[in-house]
Amino acid sequence: MSQLTFPISLWEGFEPVHTEQTGQQLIIHLKPTRPGRCTCGKQAQSVHETRLRSIAERAILDYQVTLRLPHRRIVCPDCGVVTEHLSWLDPFARQTNRLVAFVERLLPLLPIQHIAELTGLHWHTIKTIDKRRLAREIPEPDWSQVRRLAMDEFALFKGHRYATVVADADTHQVLWVGEGRSRRAIRPFFEQLGPHCQQIEAVAMDMNTAFDLEVKTHCPKAKVVYDLFHVVAKYGREVIDRVRVDQANALRDDRAARRKVKRGRWVLLKNRQNLTATQAGYLDELLQANRSLMVVYLLREQLKELWYCQSAQEAFSQWALWWQQVLESGIEPLQQFARKLKRYLHGIVASAEHRLHTGRLEGMNNKIKLMKRMGYGYRDTEYFFLKIKAAFPGKMR
């Protein structure tokens, strides 16, 4: 035990009387130097009771510091019996404001586990500090300026558990994140949007019926725009992959041709501009040797053109031509896909008026996956959703 003095007052209303050192742990005992004060500013008439408290403080040199102090319940002439107000310690807190501010400065720079090792605080304590910081710092959306939305889903946990993210399509600010992808799951967003639903002009999404129906219910003036990326990806899975497998099965007696078809999956699914010279040559040989693969490949490229039409009339004309070619192809997987896609034609044609897509959200999803991997998953979904909002504050209009 030793006497300790400081050249400046670190704890207003208290002074250190002695210290205890155990290894790299330093315990500083404090005593009050003035009567207690209420949060209203009045001085206490008397002390109702005193409790000894242990408070974590920011490290001094290489020592992790704990404060031991008598925290008083005082009798205020106006407020009655209350806990005395300390300028450097929030009510019920177990860490000084100085330590909390230090942790908050580290949080954007280091993982929580590293901060825990540096400060000696528990992981959950730092997470709680971070949640309060995020809730305070995340900008509130200006709902009056929101006109166009983009909606998408991402995998939250293994086992087909998903979450939905909604962003402003113009500023790219994440407006809302919620667990689930059903109508009931996303309804709280529209309830939060409230009367501003009437000003929404367009919403970009994949072909999710739940999203579609909920938008039509709450935003009657909004046009639904189906995203090109999702439609083309679905075409690849349900048409190109299916036809490729069927053609490979039909070539059982020709091993060389069958092997070429089976190995052609990625060159068929990738955009031609992304192929290397070797891959492009392989694709050309494959298409020249197989009529069905040639047809579904070319019709995929033609389908993409629907999203780049200059008017709804042009889009309908392009669709009619594409539909006729599908019917004449005689390829059953292609015709099945086209029949399902026809029900969503309104959302494809709407892209002629509203140049919207969820490509930005796909990029956001990649960053969300990275955040999830870095955090080794998040058991606290509320905290994870706050981290997502903080990562995408949007740009100025």
Question: How would you describe what is shown here?
Answer:
The chain is an alpha/beta fold. It has 3 domains: 14-136, no CATH class; 143-227 and 358-391, Ribonuclease H-like superfamily/Ribonuclease H (Nucleotidyltransferase, domain 5, 2-Layer Sandwich); 228-352. It has 15 helices and 10 strands. It has helices at residues 97-106, 112-119, 123-137, 183-193, 209-218, 228-250, 255-262, 265-269, 277-289, 291-304, 312-329, 332-342, 345-349, 359-374, 381-391, and strands at 14-22, 25-32, 46-60, 63-76, 80-83, 148-157, 161-168, 174-179, 202-205, 223-226. Strands 1, 2, 3, 4 and 5 form a 5-stranded mixed β-sheet that branches. β7 (161-168) and β8 form a beta hairpin. α4 runs parallel beside α5. The longest helix is centred in the middle third of the chain and has 23 residues, at 228-250. The chain starts with 13 loop residues before the first strand and ends in a 6-residue tail after the last helix. The mean pLDDT is 89.
What are the key terms here?
alpha/beta, five-stranded mixed sheet, Nucleotidyltransferase, domain 5, 397 residues
Q: What's the total helix number?
A: 15
Rg from Cα: 31 Å
Q: Could you spell the SSE succession in H and E letters?
A: EEEEEHHHEEEHEHEHHHHHHHHHH
Instruction: Average the pLDDT over all residues and give the rounded result.
Output: 89
Label the overall shape. Answer: elongated
How much of the sequence lies in strands comes to: 15-25%
In helices, the fraction of residues equals: 40-55%
Q: What's the structural domain tally? A: 3
Q: Any low-confidence stretches, pLDDT <50, length ≥5?
A: none
Q: What kind of sheet is the major sheet? A: 5 strands, mixed
Q: Helices and strands: which structural class? A: alpha/beta
How many strand elements? 10
End-to-end distance, in Å? 61 Å
